Fold:
Amino acid sequence: MAPKKDPRAPIKKAEPAAAPAAAPAPAPAPAPAPKARPVDLSAVKVEFTADQMEDYREAFGLFDRVGDNKVAYNQIADIMRALGQNPTNKDVNKLLGSPSAEEMANKRVTFEGFLPMLQTIINSPNKAGYEDYVEGLRVFDKEGNGTVMGAELRIVLSTLGEKLNEAEIDALMAGQEDENGCINYEAFVKHIMSV
Amino acid sequence: KFKPFETSNSSAYPNAENSHLAAVLIQQWYRQYVARMEMRRRYTWHIFQSIEYSGEQAQIKLYNFLGYLMDNFTPSSDERKLISHIFRENEVCRDAEWERYFCYKNIEVPDIYSGPRLRFPLTAEQAVGLLEAFRNKKQQLHSRYVLQLLLETWKLLRMLPNISRIATCHSKEITICGDLHGQLEDLLLIFYKNGPPSLEKPYVFNGDFVDRGKDSMEILLILFAFLLVYPTEVHLNRGNHEDHIINLRYGFTKEVLSKYKMHGKRILKLLQKIFSWLPLAAVIDQKVLVLHGGISDSTASFCAVRFGASRRSSASWPPINDALTNPRVINPPPGLNRLLRLSVITRRSCKSGPSDPLRFGRPRDGRLSFCRLQRLGSIKAALGGSNLNLESQCVLLCSILDLLWSDPMSQDGCIPNELRGGGCYWGPDVTRDFLSKHNLQLIVRSHECKQDGYEFCHNRKVLTLFSASNYYDVGSNRGAYVKLGPDLLPYVVQYQASSMTRELTAQQRYVGQTERSALKVLREQLFSHKSDLVWAFKAFDSDDTGLLSVTDWATAVESVMRLGLPWRMLRSQLVGGKSGDGLIDYRRWFDELAIKGETRSCLLETLYRHRSTLETIFRIVDTNNSGFISPSDFRQTWKLLSVYLKMEITDEAISELAVAIDSNRDGAIDIDEFMEAFRLTDKKSRLERGRSMFMATAPDLAALDPDERV
Structure:
């Protein structure tokens, strides 16, 4: 398609939502309602600074491959991740009102529609840091010696949680296992957090 | 707060709850990592693509400028004399005389030459032998055989119609390849995976064989050899880079002169003719249209004629009714008339046409002054049909430009392609109408680099195909070719000419490495606009603090650079430090990008920014493609440039520049050496020699060590 920089369809600069200039990441709000009820996005108060809005707008624009100033439902999770958030796919599905596969591929959302979604995720309590990742991996450290078995990790990642496929796991673990198939997990976490 | 894990006994199996949480945590992290990489990849891509297209735009601007010179300077003026030869139509025109000029017969091939020795008519074995010579032994074909092969190719092409008609029959599959851009590795890879052309294996090559890559010549030789051996199975379409003026800028001219020091000029001249004789499109089974750029809402008329006409006839064309109301005829895009004048037109050689260059009137009150078109005698002859009225001819010429330069867009409609400077953007409605009008089902085109080597759009009615992998940088994209069987369902094959396999670590390496390249190029661009940027910054910094907020910085940068890039995202990579409160110290920023030996900052900066144009002009002025220009022409060129840039370049400044250059050969100035003066020194990392997006891209041509006798 024609490259993004395009005189025909300038990205509409909406007025930034009225935001208190001082507030960076707002304090965590209580966790969203139980699974059954869809998230009411209109009730979410968007509290981003002007700077943050511009950053998000840029990222949003990068993911718009069609040039209509919107992104598809199935890109929302990735944009949020690119912006430093960590939603699970389940979290995002809930936000979107549990759409069908067809809707995920075809429905599109504007930047203004995206903002309350992002705000919801930012407000939610799951913020893991280095220690949490190390703790998470320590769970599999049977011998308490600072390493985990690569093979075991593979099984866990492909069968539990939001499963990764084989290629993803290979990519994730590439070059991490030593000759005994063990991974030093503190080094691993340092490595993955550094890129 | 984040739910902590329950610590388990070291010897017991971790409980299910913890395992699950741990898994989710790692998976979340991984997905975030992938998303971040994807974003970096995307903006890296944007950088390369924006800069590539703005280079093409600069080229069209150059055309406009040269055209402006032709219009506004008297014929006797020095400036015009310098460049008028490229518009000159009074060259020897008869084919027989050209054949004498290109004669290879008295070029001797020394015994010591170990490359292929061709015998004509070429056989399949010889074509394959040529492949082997280039691939395995890295040999260069002797100029005698080059000229001979090109001559035969030229003879053949003159007999071909504008649009090739191809039929799949029985179970034959046709293979279509996109842009190759001098990347021989990719062509070899395609032939390795798919087999070279043969009676059972027809091919269509969809243009842009040359420029940027370092083996454009070898690619042409291979394609032409197979064309001669299998004229009904091999089809070549012209691309926008099959154009001798574009080649001046994007490296092909330089490559030929470097590889063929003695006979390069003749080879280039012959290639110029060959390019103008390449067919413009191909139609497979009357259902699939293959062409380099694309279509527009006015190619309907053009194609209607050509599809209807039999292959070799020059039948009279039906009147084209919509010509006068077509807004693009009435108000052609600015680059159009100039571009047409220079290279696109000569489908057929002129027969003693007028010696004036072609003149299009500048649009007055929105209409072309058709009376000026009276002098288009050579166009008439060029089109081979005297029944065309002038308006129709104009529509035709618009169409040719569209075919080679247009890009698809997602919105309906058809608008001038300002990004490229030529052709148009066309929308899905135009595709729909075009396909139904001509009873076609698919358009296969190239012209745009795609990360996966291909991309469908317009409801899968348009397929973009790009065959130069790693085009922007190693790992940037795959290449692809497509196969069509009698069912005409496209089957795409992807590849990547690289020893790197696509693992995450390789991906990491690619993103990091390519990103660094892209940023390097971008820093160059920024530096070369320093004055404008400082001026724009000052507009936001009325108190002259030297500091700017990120938002103001990004806005100012975009207003100057106009590349449509995500500047905020790039900021941390482009600007080293910033002050504690998040503001950017823009004065210190420019210190990080310093051009070596800088004395007169403003002039040098401007020249640096326009170095590609400067080089192109030099090469134009160098009429016989020797690689050198005389000191007086050198001065004249500067005068020309000062008009173009609308800035004063004093004689004194020119003398200083000339002194800085090592002159040899009776004081003639070596263009390459002169351009070497414009190398950016980035304090963070030195720019690699020769590998610049803006010069001839061939990395070290010196490394080729061409045989002096060849």
Summary: Chain A touches chain B through 65 residues (CB under 8 Å). Residues 1-36 of chain A have pLDDT under 50 and may be disordered. The two ends of chain A are 30 Å apart (CA to CA).
